Amino acid sequence: MLTVLAAVAALQLPANPAQAAAAQAIGATAPIHFDFGRRPSNLGPDGAGKGGQPPITVAFHGGPVQVTTTPYLIWWLPPGQTLPSNYQQVVGNYFNDIGGSALYNVLTAYSGSNGQIANSVTPGGAWTDTTAYPKVIGYRDVVQSVKRAIAANPSWKLGTSSQLYVFTSQSAPVSLTQFCAYHTYFTHKSMDVVYAYIPDPVNVDGCQTPFNVSPNKDLDVDSATTSINHEQAEMASDPLISSWYSDSDNPNLKGAEIADVCVYDFGIPFKADGANMVFANGDEYVVQALFDNSTGLCEPTL
Hints:
This protein has helices at residues 2-10, 17-26, 87-98, 102-105, 139-152, 219-237, 258-261, and strands spanning 32-35, 59-60, 70-76, 111-112, 115-116, 125-129, 162-168, 181-188, 191-198, 244-245, 277-278, 284-285, 290-292, 297-299. It is an alpha/beta fold.
């Protein structure tokens, strides 16, 4: 706990009780940011405005952004551990689709110490980690999976503009802490390794798609792409947790990032299957809007 708080203080990131408690519960030893999903109780007193929308904005704190983004996917699936049959395909499609989209274009409103975010995402590859799960998957276990992937894939380019995602199975022994996903980073051979952990979200209250809609006919993967949508935006705008986040006076909202501000904003599905975002190639998803600092609104209109 002291290590976590010391690291957070060094980055001048405001203390948030829920974030700090979750970090302690999984044994985090670096600055970390959790997505707790769409559960108003996590916002604390006066944490939601009209329509359930947190009445907060974000401010710049001097750090870098991901000017361009290269995602790498790590499928941590030991023998006997599975995901729904279309899960990996839909997730892969999402990363192929998102660059150049109206959704990702919201991020171009953000600049950091290294420049402005471009509407550009170039998938970098995927790898399967077959290492057995520990009794409970904690922070260090996810870090070790990322390190195994790096060692097995020397061509992967590390640095602030790369995003590594760790996915685990439906029955993976995730920490008892209730979260949908998180993002953080560590340093490897003098390079920043920015990564997110996306456990299967369907069994965690508040992590499913709104009203359990499922355009891809599998609630697990549609809920997962919603979590990916959330984490990707926050890693791009706040990769080292030192750039764009809230300075709210409410301690339960301090440190909120650009997807947290719009965590309840899914608009109105315009297809019968519940999809609120359809890309040019016809791929369908359920995504949340993102806070656009240039307009002060959750964008795009869904």
